[in-house]
Amino acid sequence: MKFPSLFSPLQVGPYKLKHRVVMAPLTRMRAERPSLAPRPLNVEYYGQRATPGGLIIAEASPVVATGHGSPGTPGIYSEQQVTGWRGVVDAVHARGGLIFLQLWHVGRVSHSSFQPGGVLPVSSSAVPISAALKTMTADGKPAPYETPRALETGEIADVVDSFRQAARNAREAGFDGVEIHGANGYLIEQFLQSHTNLRTDRYGGSIANRARLLMEVTEAVIEVWGADRVGVRLSPYGVANDSGETDPMPLYSHVVKSLGPLGLAYLHFVEPRSSGAGRAEVNHQNVPSAMVLFRPIWSGVLISAGGFTGETAEAAIAAGHADAIAFGRIFISNPDLPLRLQHGYPLTPYNRATFYGGEEMGYTDYPAYGELERA
Ligand SMILES: Cc1cc2nc3c(=O)[nH]c(=O)nc-3n(C[C@H](O)[C@H](O)[C@H](O)COP(=O)(O)O)c2cc1C
Asked: Which residues, including other chains, have CB under 8 Å from residue 252's CB and lie 6 or more apart?
């Protein structure tokens, strides 16, 4: 066997994974419109990527209408969306796979054209994303980011409730668990980090206060699912969407230590070297490794993502730095990625131009290895 550690079983909460090649959450902007519900094309895509005992983390899905920031991202707050997701879950289960849903609120990484009533997007504070970065309006036109509106203290409980309700919806759709998106510069991270959180209430100031939203959301989601079916994704040392903490160690040490006693299914890191891989081909140099830094203070299951190959994934697991590896870009272009890694089959390169939006091209038309041979 080529990669014995990567292809050894792993217990994640109540689930026994047969291998440790996880599909990373990947936004593809191909939901049905205007319902923003998963449709048959999405069912086919996820079904193609399911393997017996393999874990898929389905793409980030806004928990509430105000949580959207890009066109065609599927939600998890309406009946139609729950029905759409049920089709995806059933296809993955039919192949013996497991699937968690990533719960998302983009906060300021949005534009008023996505917001019900055309109001400003919300954030921890009224701090805009750098003018160097551009966004897209709901009809796909490039636009500058706006200055978000700071949530009132009294509104934060509503955000937590949105995550709780979305967690219930994900259960109704039949998912095996959920992952809270606390990474990549989105709302939860906008609260965590000091340059975006200038609040003076109990959600701002000290590290414990800035971490309060993440902890309240995690506790609310745990109430619905039980801790062993809930994961949390973080990106310490990340720079995506104009994020970044000057001194990440005290903040993220506190967060990891606070999540520890909850008994989560797993903690999931985006490795800093590939922070922002959704927007561009990046390979940040001279940055630390999140899994290496935080493994010593996390005793649960640890998943790491970011620029891994079969070889580096095997080495990370064999060294004890991580328990499983999530693959993003190469899972897009290799629907049978676990099989290819296991047998050392060559990988199909991905086409970035078709990452976001569109139909089957660059989505469901990447062949499995056997199909490639026959072509
Ligand atoms: C097209 C695309 C969409 C992504 N969407 C998400 C997402 O919805 N949620 C998330 O946490 N990360 C997202 N990411 C980041 C990936 O999950 C992953 O961390 C990153 O691509 C690095 O892994 P890789 O080098 O194996 O691609 C996205 C990345 C890409 C390329």
From this structure: 234, 236, 245, 294
- pLDDT tens per residue across span 120-145: 999 999 999 999 999 989 998 999 99
CB 146 within 8 A of CB 82: no
Q: Is 2 contained in some domain?
A: no
Cβ of residue 305 lying under 6 Å from some atom of ligand 1: yes
Residue 245 CA to its chain's centroid (Å): 20
Q: What is the pLDDT of residues 246-289, one digit of tens each?
A: 999 999 999 999 999 999 999 999 999 999 999 899 899 899 99
> Is there a domain that residue 1 lies in?
no
Q: Closest Cα to atom 2, ligand 1: which residue?
A: 278
CA 262 – CA 229 distance, rounded (Å): 11
DSSP, collapsed to helix, strand or coil, labels residue 102 as: strand
Q: How many domains does the chain have?
A: 1
Report if residue 5 sits inside a domain.
no
Domain that holds residue 203: 10-374
**Residue whose entry in the numeric block shows the structure tokens 């497991």:** 98
In a domain, 134, yes or no: yes
CATH number at residue 29: 3.20.20.70
CA 88/CA 39 separation, integer angstroms: 8
Q: Is 274 close to ligand 1, i.e. is its CB under 6 Å away?
A: yes
From the CB of residue 109, how many other CB atoms can be counted at a distance below 10 Å? 27
